Amino acid sequence: MKTVDLIVPCYNEEEGLENFVIQTNKVIASLLEYKFRYILVNDGSRDKTYLVIKKLADKFDNIKYISFSRNFGKEAAMYAGLQHSTGDYAAVMDADLQHPPELFPQMLEALEKEGYDCCATRRDSREGESAFRGVFSKLFFKLSNKMTDVKMPYGAMDYRMMTRQMVKSIMELSEVQRFSKGIFSWVGFNTKWISFKTVDRQLGKTTWKFSSLFKYAIDGIACFSVAPLRFTAVMGGVIFLISLIYIIITLIQTLFFGITTPGYVTMLCAILFMGGITEMSIGILGEYIGRIYMETKDRPIYITQFTNFDDDEKETQEQ
Ligand code: UDP
Ligand code: MG
């Protein structure tokens, strides 16, 4: 019998978690030829999520959990879950039922019968989302597909199911600053994209603010591409050429027509423009240096406080 691990990051999900397990169990019950196991990762929730998880783990014996010592973020939670996964297939999904478990049969079929290594989802509609967020997210997918070698269709989501082999490859990317959507596509393999209509969160509330989405977008590009660095270099070159032309023109003017003193506006514009460009380039450079700094510290991606996994079940940790 094939085994499937369901990796679920949970942050402040006390209200909806039990319902999530009940709803998911209904789908699982119809897939008798697979053995499902939950890996619930409590990402340092501030509410009673941990107690809910423990209660659920006592009730159902296919529930495993890892509880972090603080909030490390969804990326870290997904990493911890994948690291503990030993199933033939592993799925990553949210705890708020925005990722419908009803897609499991379709995903399993893609992996088992259609020969795919991964079955990922993309959202069909962006109902209930502000137009501004929609435009921003479109721009992000366009930019990141252009600038990086990881290609993602518009609306790509984290919700997906993949084979053991793909999970293993993902674990080989041990970077601390993780951008999973990019990592999933960076490792390659055959991915089938299925789309579905997103539904509003039923219980609890989203933890994403616009500022965190902005940070997410920057991460997405900076983690997978040095194109912004190249952009500053090219921009420097172009400005240099333009300045050269302007210098020649000014020199000729001065030599043949004498010194014309007025030039206040030109000077001011040039100083401000160059100042702006320099600041921006230093900023981009700094973004990358900051990443190098954080990466060289080689800190653990998460710290476990409680778990019901045995030590030897963690496959890749001690590598
Ligand atoms: N989550 C997490 N750590 C965080 C923030 C969120 O583990 O710091 C989990 C959360 O519990 C949920 C999933 O990530 O299962 C997606 O979060 P949310 O529903 O808030 O985001 P959205 O659906 O708006 O993308
Ligand atoms: Mg959600």
Report on this model:
The protein has an eight-stranded mixed beta sheet, with helices on both faces. Helix 5 (131-147) runs parallel beside helix 8. It is α/β, with parallel strands linked by helices and 319 residues long. The chain has helices spanning 17-29, 49-59, 74-84, 104-112, 131-147, 164-172, 180-186, 210-222, 227-257, 264-297, and strands spanning 2-10, 34-42, 63-68, 89-92, 118-123, 156-163, 191-196, 304-307. The structure holds uridine-5'-diphosphate and magnesium ion (MG). Residues 9-11, 13, 43, 71, 73-74, 77, 94-96, 98, 201, 206-208 line the site of uridine-5'-diphosphate.
Number of helices: 10
The ligands bound in this entry are: uridine-5'-diphosphate, magnesium ion
Number of strand elements: 8
How far apart the termini lie comes to 29 Å
Rg over alpha carbons? 25 Å
Task: Provide the β-strand percentage band.
Answer: 15-25%
How are the strands of the biggest sheet laid out side by side? 7-5-6-4-1-2-3-8
Q: What is the typical, i.e. mean, pLDDT?
A: 87
What spatial form do the alpha-carbon principal axes imply?
A: elongated
Portion in helices: 40-55%
Write down the secondary-structure element order.
Answer: EHEHEHEHEHEHHEHHHE
| Main beta-sheet annotation | 8 strands, mixed
Specify the structural class.
alpha/beta
Flag low-confidence runs: 315-319
